[in-house]
Design a protein that fits this description.
It contains 13 helices and 17 strands. The chain has helices spanning 36-42, 47-50, 84-102, 112-123, 140-151, 166-174, 191-203, 227-240, 295-306, 314-325, 329-354, 381-392, 421-440, and strands at residues 4-9, 23-28, 55-57, 70-71, 134-137, 157-162, 178-185, 188-189, 210-213, 243-248, 272-277, 289-292, 361-362, 370-374, 394-395, 397-398, 411-415. Helix 3 (84-102) crosses helix 10 (314-325), helix 11 (329-354) runs parallel beside helix 13 and helix 12 packs across helix 13. It starts with a strand and ends with a helix. Residues 1-33 and 54-63 have low confidence and may be disordered.
Length: 441
């Protein structure tokens, strides 16, 4: 009784192991359980499960577990960015004074105090929020799943970026949404191309329910959408009658300037659902995130979430609320920005020194944790990845994983947030060698 897995190289996501190569595997279910038993089990699967063409397996190659592998793959915050001591003190005090409450079940929508602090927190971004129009979720990924569950019937149409965050496309695909891709350039989703796509779909009597966008330091491209595009997206949502799912995990990690207004800040019609998170600015392990939306939508979300987990982590909410009340996050974010800016400057230096600039281009990161590298179109980054890992001990994420149709082969996501300074310097040289050798060949 065997398991036949057909491996394809694929590095992706925001939640993979720092040194990990994630493989996409197509699983032949019949080989797991053969004969009549397999046929009996097959009929029990839901249609959406039967239609899943692949299983994303978060498993590491043994090769990448070796300490000499330098990984630019992981979308992980740097552990140096965690306020460990502050969280320890807060947790001790909570357990001493409110331990019985903090270790108990909570309400599905989140603790009132946490929701109050979230409402205060987002006012600095220009978002109006109250306890009634936000909900606490266990990471933005749960938020994407709930959004998909609420809005998508099988065959419903949605707009995503090209490229887009794979966790979003995976959630939409799981609920059998049909994704239509719109080009993402250095300024994020192109609004002219979005309008063209909407017109094209309307002629076919296809009306997307929502557009999913990561406008601020996008994963994977690192692109930052300017204000005029954000406002234009609101206009298009009104004109063509669709919702906007705005995912903002990296919005606080800007290298220069003041707060960047989200698309939600320009929303006066309740069309934008804003997903925020504390994973990148406090701790991903706490799984603290939130959604801000029209109160009617939030009320439906509460019902949808009850069937998922009853309530979010109560202790984590106590910790998060206390951290916000004490004003810990604002000065801590300044430290994170300085750390990642330093990492990016090292990465940019390495790219300039070791990459063949006449053949390769990359996004100049203004914040976030990634840059997006494009190599000549006659190269396939999955082929390069095999060489990079096996011969040069360096890893990255192949760009094809971020396109729902897997159509673009010559891109890669390179993360600078987690590696050490030395690893960035050595790793960019190694990766540059891989690309130069491939171009020569």
């Amino acid at each position: 009784m065997g398991l036949n897995i057909y491996w394809r190289w694929c590095l992706y996501g925001d939640y993979e192991h720092y040194s990990g190569v994630i493989l996409m595997a197509q699983v032949d279910v019949s080989s797991v359980v053969s004969g009549p038993v397999a046929n009996q089990l097959e009929k029990f699967f839901a249609v959406r499960v039967q239609s899943m063409h692949a299983s994303e397996i978060r498993e590491l190659l043994k090769l990448t577990q070796q300490p000499e592998i330098i990984s630019f793959a992981g979308g992980l915050p740097n552990p140096e960015a965690f306020p460990v001591e502050e969280i320890r003190k807060i947790t001790d005090e909570i357990l001493q004074s409110q331990g019985k409450q903090a270790l108990q079940y909570g309400t599905t929508e989140g603790l009132p105090r946490m929701r109050e602090e979230i409402a205060k927190w987002v006012t600095r971004l220009g978002i109006e929020s109250t306890v009634d129009n936000n909900i606490v979720v266990q990471g933005s990924q749960q938020g994407l799943d709930i959004v998909s569950k609420m809005f998508l019937d099988p065959g419903d149409n949605i707009i995503v970026g090209s490229p887009t965050y794979v966790g979003g496309s995976n959630a939409f695909e799981a609920y059998q949404g049909v994704m239509h891709q719109v080009e993402v350039d250095e300024d994020g989703m192109n609004m002219d191309k979005l309008e063209d796509k909407l017109k094209e779909l309307n002629k076919k009597d296809i009306h997307p329910k929502f557009a999913y966008v990561v406008p601020t330091f996008q994963n994977p491209s690192g692109a930052l959408m300017p204000e005029d595009r954000r406002k234009r997206m609101i206009e298009l949502s009104n004109e063509y009658n669709f919702l906007i799912i705005e995912d903002s995990p990296y919005g606080e990690i800007q290298f220069e300037g003041g707060p960047i207004k989200p698309i939600k800040a320009y929303d006066d019609g309740g069309r934008v659902l804003y997903l925020g998170t504390f994973s990148k600015i406090l701790s991903p392990g706490l799984r603290l995130a939130y959604i801000i939306a029209d109160e009617n939508i939030i009320n439906k979300m509460i019902i949808a979430k009850q069937a998922v987990d009853l309530c979010s982590n109560t202790l984590a909410q106590y910790i998060g609320a206390e951290a916000l009340t004490r004003g810990i996050l604002k000065p801590h974010i300044d430290k994170i920005r300085a750390l990642y800016k330093h990492k990016w400057e090292l990465m940019r230096k390495g790219l300039n020194e070791h990459f063949p600039k006449e053949h390769v281009k990359w996004v100049e990161a203004k914040g976030g944790m990634f840059t997006w590298v494009t190599v000549p179109d006659y190269l396939d980054s999955s082929d390069l990845l095999k060489v990079a890992i096996e011969q040069h001990k360096v890893a990255y994420v192949i760009g094809a994983a971020f396109y729902p149709d897997r159509s673009v082969k010559n891109t890669m996501r390179v993360s600078f947030s987690y590696p050490t300074d030395e690893q960035i310097e050595i790793g960019t040289e190694r990766l540059g060698t891989v690309i130069k050798d491939a171009i020569k060949e």
